Amino acid sequence: MNVPLLDLKAQLKTIEKELKTAVLEVIDSTTYIMGPKVEALENQVAEYTGVPFGIGVSSGTDALLIALMALDVKPGDTVVTTPYSFFATAGVVSRLGATPAFVDIDPVTYNMDPQKLETWFDQHKGDIRRVKAIVPVHLFGQCADMDPILGLAGKHGIPVIEDAAQAIGSTYPGKTGIKKAGAMGTMGCFSFFPSKNLGGIGDGGMVVTSDMELAEKLKKLRNHGASPKYHHSLIGGNFRLDPVQAAVLLVKLPRLESWHEGRRKNAATYNARLNTPGVRKPGVAYGEKHHIYNQYVISVPDRRDGLRKFLSDNRIGNEVYYPVAFHEQVCFQYLRYRSGDFPNSEYAAGHTVALPIYPELSREMQDFVIEKIDAFYAAH
């Protein structure tokens, strides 16, 4: 049996005709930069998220970058985030000459630990004035614990940028009600990379916000700071969303909730049937309905790499998100962190593996995955 980590062809079969029609409409229109498809997607994603404004950009990485640019992050500034995420979360901070400061993750959810964030502020009172943003990551499709994070940010007057690249549609039951990822902070950033629950056929991203002034600034920044054309009040970049990607995403967005449900159903199967001793299933902080399972990540006590090879040898797709925490990356050695500074992130980097979870995954495929995990640890 072949069980890929992700099977985009299975999804394509269900929407192929609509996708090709949508792409041909863009080709026939000859509107190849921005245009009505991009505007329509911006409006629909904003409405889906529950905020007034959506600004389409060229990737999830550029969404994070442009959000920091909109806050005028510059050399000498500090941005507080976690050391366990996709590289862009911290990489964009350094690209602007600012300093990423890390706080460890919760060992169950892999998201920013609010208590450790509070400790960081207690220990860096003299540096708080330099902090221009806090960037919690909604990792693997589950929201970070936003109430205490927003409380700390509000106390110190610091904007919050939600890295929701893996979490579009996930929800958080906070003190002010249930809100979707991206709608709680100053800005929220999404990725439309093809592997995401809402993925394009190339790169794409979006920033959402409830702040009209920030929305207008983001629109300028994505187009070299120009408004009107050839009149530049800011120095921005070319961060525009491709209308072909917007057209594809407009076809997919109405199906997103059903795809979330398919992933939740598959997660429930793993949760019920994957009972290998020592294997820890994903922690669910707020209930299954709030999680979208962009990934299904298990933690194993030992022999993680051996398990991966065994699964691959049995044609079962798997992946490690992420094998090296930021503070141990070569490019961040100048920050002078040491191994052991963030033990929860280091443990996750060394002991986790993602299993197939896409909506079209069959019960037989899942049973095969579980059988092989059982077999590997029974033999060891």
Question: How would you summarize what this structure contains?
Answer:
This protein is of the alpha/beta class and 380 residues long. The protein has helices at residues 8-29, 36-49, 60-70, 88-95, 114-123, 146-156, 212-221, 243-252, 256-273, 304-313, 343-351, 363-379; strands at 53-57, 78-81, 99-102, 131-134, 161-163, 171-174, 177-180, 187-191, 205-209, 296-299, 352-355. Helix 4 links the parallel strand 2 and strand 3.
Structure description:
The chain is of the alpha/beta class and 380 residues long. It is 39% helix and 12% strand. It has helices spanning 8-29, 36-49, 60-70, 88-95, 114-123, 146-156, 212-221, 243-252, 256-273, 304-313, 343-351, 363-379; strands at residues 53-57, 78-81, 99-102, 131-134, 161-163, 171-174, 177-180, 187-191, 205-209, 296-299, 352-355. The longest helix is centred in the first third of the chain and has 22 residues, at 8-29. The two termini are 23 Å apart. The mean pLDDT is 97.
Shape: globular
Mean pLDDT, to the nearest integer, reads: 97
Tally the helices.
12
CATH class of the largest domain: Alpha Beta
- Gyration radius (Cα, Å) is 21 Å
Assembly state of the chains shown:
single chain
Strand content: 5-15%
CATH superfamily of the largest domain: Type I PLP-dependent aspartate aminotransferase-like (Major domain)
Which strand order does the major sheet show? 1-9-8-5
Question: What order do the SSEs take from the amino end to the carboxyl end, as H and E?
Answer: HHEHEHEHEHEEEEEHHHEHHEH
Give the CATH architecture of the largest domain: 3-Layer(aba) Sandwich
Number of strands: 11
Query: Would you tell me the structural class of the helices and strands?
Result: alpha/beta
